[in-house]
Amino acid sequence: MIKSTIHPSCIRMPSTAISANRIAKLTARERARFAAARPRSAALSARNAEHLLFGVPLHWMSDWGTPFALHVAEARGAQLTDVDGHRLVDFCLGDTGAMFGHSPAPVVAALQAQAARGLTTMLASEDASAVGELLAARFGLPRWQFAMTATDANRFLLRWLRAVTQRRVLLVFNGCYHGTVDDVFVDLVAGQPVQRPSLLGQVHDLTQTTRVVEFNDLAALEAALAPGDVACVLAEPVMTNIGMVLPEPGFWPAAAELIRRHGSLLVLDETHTISSGPGGYARAEGLAPDALVLGKPLGGGMPCAAYGFTAELAARCEAAKRAAPPGHSGIGTTLTANLLAMAAMRATLSTLMTEAVYQPMLALAGQLADGLRGAIARHGLPWCVSQVGARAEFQFCARPPRNGSEAAAAMDDALEHLLHLALLNRGVLITPFHNMMLVCPETTAADVERLVQAFDAVLAELTST
Ligand SMILES: Cc1ncc(COP(=O)(O)O)c(C=O)c1O
Asked: Where is the signal peptide (predicted)?
């Protein structure tokens, strides 16, 4: 899928473990099975073709491995029902937007209460005070601003940090994803920075202001920081968008020290790693970023995002804005921090982002990861499974990758599509980008067992002689 693709020359080679022929044959069968069982989805896809680009409201939706777009009738808790009446256990959960389950009751109640009292005013409400306090207590950063999406939060933060440091360069890790922030789409290809060729309509040479190094490579990080022109390092604490790449022991403390020594700032994007626990990965691991980004599940499924600053950085941001000429900062959007969004975040932070909600999710994700490992071992495949809190990922390589290049080299589009489609046809949905699965508060042990059994059955077919 487009989101995580880095460079065509270095990724998505067919897996050596399973023949391309077998993958193609099983894929044809699964596509036929999907199509035969979904006349309503097929009819809606045909109808959409007239008025929607690619027949879908967001063109990514045509990148699932399905012959035509799956249309949803209803989503509740850990379940989806499609328009043809099939019930699916949802481990995609809107690619993390619904990490606390579909339509969580406290968020629905808060939205219902707020909806009758105003949706958007471009004014603060009492919820803003509560949300600010909750974020500060939960994440240990004292000052916050909001956005509607994690993409925007990253984009805005980048503006603030370039302004306060008066430095132009952004440093990212190869294979990263931080939303559709143009600046991050620079890959390392044979050691050289290359602007992602798939970007549409990009007229700037992003390699002029974005530097890219491999994750877990402290020497490369230090060399990239050495010129003293890096405004900030923007990173997920665990890479989750090129498959999963875990930090090696000691990587983050050493990286943080280098970043500070070179006068740069560390931004941790916890949009996905918020799956680690109610304070995110940084809190759980004792990391101390200068700024933090949260999005996706922060509003329980409503479009909301937030970014937080240390007191020192917040003071620098305020000073930069005061010192700037009057006029537009280039940061913000009209509907940001609207009344509905603030109500959703307050409900999510106070009732869902709690230890009590997370603990069973983490335990079930552990069972899921173990179950997948068992199936992989039973079928003798050289694949591995990684876990970050409520999120697990299987990858087509024998040991967890150390960096984006290794993770990309383990990808296999055709095999991925087949697995996703075959699981869908067996009643379980996983994220269409790479092989990510997420557990929500309503996911049950039986749901996990169902996924593991379906996975096992598909692997049996893939490997049968
Ligand atoms: C780490 C990270 N940051 C930011 C984003 C962007 O989120 P959104 O698409 O909601 O703007 C994503 C989306 O996958 C993400 O994984």
From this structure: none
